[in-house]
Amino acid sequence: MTDDPEKDAARRHREKMEKRKAVQDAEVASKSIAQKGLLMVHTGPGKGKSTAAFGLALRALGHGWKIGVVQFGKGAWRTGEREMLEKLGQVAWHTLGEGFTWETQDRTRDEAAARRAWETACELMDDLAIRLLVLDELNIALRYDHLPLDEVIAKLGARRTDLHVVVTGRNAKPEMISAADLVTEMAQVKHHFSAGVKAQAGIEF
Amino acid sequence: MTDDPEKDAARRHREKMEKRKAVQDAEVASKSIAQKGLLMVHTGPGKGKSTAAFGLALRALGHGWKIGVVQFGKGAWRTGEREMLEKLGQVAWHTLGEGFTWETQDRTRDEAAARRAWETACELMDDLAIRLLVLDELNIALRYDHLPLDEVIAKLGARRTDLHVVVTGRNAKPEMISAADLVTEMAQVKHHFSAGVKAQAGIEF
């Protein structure tokens, strides 16, 4: 304690922050596995699942990596965004979904589309040049049983140690969460649709 | 009902999906506000808050928009990613944070850095060419009271109707959530740090 309350406050702040930094440094030092291809899952009802995956794609391209993208649905991302990523590096892009099942109302077609998308995903997993693979809305194909869950989980679990995979879509299966290294749930706290605002060009499409 | 259980299942599936589509179509039709610059907040302890913001930046550039980025912290995004975005269009990028307060341990410096960052944000809000402004980790500056909350909320509330703003950072203030049009909370369901895996190049930095 000194006679100067402002100095005391500054000292307390400094001490608190020093303690916090020590905790953080110890946590970083405790990690022992230096490199691991991560299976990342973005799920939950909120926005940002595919958008964050494409942010990761941007970063990966910044590292000079080749990336792969397979869209199991029609996808939140369109031709324009694909063109942007392709300007920046090597992108193997496949849109193989044909729209959500509540739009197509044809189960056989949905299953065939999911199967084609999954076969493409398997080929890209075997392409050694690819370091990041985005499987956009795979969770939705699994939720509707358009693909056998066991087969998908086994293949993802057997991926190369230098391949990162991002799986998006709400309602991730428990088996997918269990297989993943990193799972983020996007929760919707508030949405402008509730206030009568339409989907905004440039933001939502 | 028919004699064919497979046909029945297909019919039930079709009816269910038709119903779902009708609900969705009605929801879309109910929206009356055609254009509104959205205040979007990405908060919560999970990954993907800044990454989803940069995914939005990519999309905005795809629409030919000029974008602004102000980093109130040192930011999860580095020179490489900035260069990628700059290749794609007009980006006004300012990294004005000097690191988290538990690294700097100097409150006066933190406050001055936050003030500079906020003044830059205000200038960019007045630049009519900019249609999307990313205020990365503004929530953290507000949480530590490095900026007056009232001033920030008032300025954001008075933004142009064609300016979209994305605010990121955990622990968003209730006043920020109240002012926002769209709030997504990124929750951490599972993290590879807990399994002893270090931060991965190309994914986390």
Notable characteristics:
homodimer, alpha/beta, Rossmann fold, about 200 residues, corrinoid adenosyltransferase activity (chains A, B), 6 strands, globular, six-stranded parallel beta sheet
- In CATH's first tier, which class of the largest domain in chain A applies? Alpha Beta
Structural class of chain A: alpha/beta
Number of strands of chain A: 6
Side-by-side strand order of the widest sheet of chain A: 3-2-4-5-1-6
Helix content of chain A: 40-55%
Give the overall average pLDDT of chain A. 87
GO biological process, one term (chains A, B): cobalamin biosynthetic process
InterPro entries (chains A, B): CblAdoTrfase_CobA, Co_AT_N_dom, P-loop_NTPase
Enzyme class (chains A, B): transferase
Domain Cob(I)alamin adenosyltransferase N-terminal (chains A, B): 4-28
Describe this structure in words.
The structure is a homodimer of 205-residue chains. With 205 residues, chain A is α/β, with parallel strands linked by helices. Chain A folds into two domains: 1-32; 35-195, 3-Layer(aba) Sandwich (Rossmann fold), CATH 3.40.50. Chain A has helices at residues 5-29, 49-62, 79-88, 101-104, 107-125, 138-143, 149-157, 174-179, and strands at residues 39-43, 66-71, 91-95, 130-136, 164-168, 182-190. In chain A, strands 3-2-4-5-1-6 form a six-stranded parallel β-sheet, with helices on both faces. In chain A, helix 3 (79-88) links the parallel strand 2 (66-71) and strand 3 (91-95). The radius of gyration of chain A is 21 Å and the shape is globular. The model of chain A has no long low-confidence stretch (mean pLDDT 87). At the A-B interface, helix 1, strand 1, helix 2, helix 3 and helix 4 of A face helix 1, strand 1, helix 2, helix 3 and helix 4 of B.
